[in-house]
Amino acid sequence: MTRRTDGVRGTTMGKMRRFGLMLVAGSLCLGPLVALAETQIYDARTGKWVDYDKKKARQLYARNKQLPEAFRRQIVPFRTAEAPGTIIIDGNQHFLYLVQPGGQAIRYGIGVGREGFGWAGIVRVGRKAENPSWTPPAEMVARDPNAAKWAAGMPGGRPDNPLGPRALYLYVGDSDTIYRIHGTIEPWTIGLDVSSGCIRLNNEDVIDLYSRVDVGAKVIVLMQGAALYKGV
Q1: What would the pLDDT profile of 52-75 be if each residue is shown by its tens digit?
Q2: What is the pLDDT of residue 130?
Q3: Which of 108, 126, 128, 149 could form a cystine bridge with 96, CB 3.0-4.6 A?
Q4: Which domain holds residue 115?
Q5: In this predicted model, what pLDDT tens digit does every residue of 122-168 receive, in sequence order?
Q6: Residue 3 domain flag
Q7: 176 in a domain, yes or no?
């Protein structure tokens, strides 16, 4: 089975990929049941699907100074029973949908957690911040020397701050999940599995999203094969 989605598709690795099958987000799965999806984009010049990996993504961004069209912000038809203002994240396809009235949504391209860091669940926007400070979690400090020097926190507003200009902090009840929706200093990574679990948008898009989303907004994260978030 193959499904085309506006020039982007996710494919599972290994045997499923060889037979042209694709992963369809839409359920919350417990545990690492399958590998996370890889991304492919449709090349209209050749009529073929091509792997959209870190190398190709950076090459295309350097050449075009923008993301592939499918990952650019746009209004799309969207059927859901969720109320306007709800955020629905399709981690496999690398899209974030902000539900709008009238059967529509604003769709943003996103980067998601790399293999082993993907998650799924239902959370909420607990707070928002402009020019957020960045404090890497203890696990990142332990494994990443670059993060370790900022263990006490990096001030917001710096051009090298990984959270970019805006951040939406994701909570379960009154507890911070440590996951955020935020900007990025690496815009070419939109459409890839690259983060430690946070959802990243390019900076223009996260500013737009931030202006439209209220504290308390429901956030549904779908990623087939990912772990269900603890506590949800």
Answers
A1: 889 989 999 999 999 999 999 999
A2: 97
A3: 108
A4: 8-228
A5: 999 999 999 999 888 788 888 888 888 888 889 998 998 999 999 99
A6: no
A7: yes
**Sign of CA pseudo-dihedral 97, 99, 103, 106:** negative
Residue 227 burial class via C-beta count within 10 angstroms: exposed 0-12, middle 13-18, buried 19 and up: buried
Beta bridge partners of 74: 107
Active site residues: 182, 198
The Cβ of residue 73 has, within 10 Å, a number of other Cβ atoms equal to: 17
Residues 217, 19 contacting (CB under 8 angstroms): no
Indicate the SS3 state at residue 104: strand
Q: Is the pLDDT of residue 197 over 90?
A: no
For residue 1, is it within any domain?
no
Looking up residue 213, the CATH number of its domain turns out to be 2.40.440.10
For the chain, the domain total comes to 1
Strand partners, 172: 175
DSSP 182-227: E--S-GGGTTSEEESS-EE--HHHHHHHHHH--TT-EEEEE-TTSE
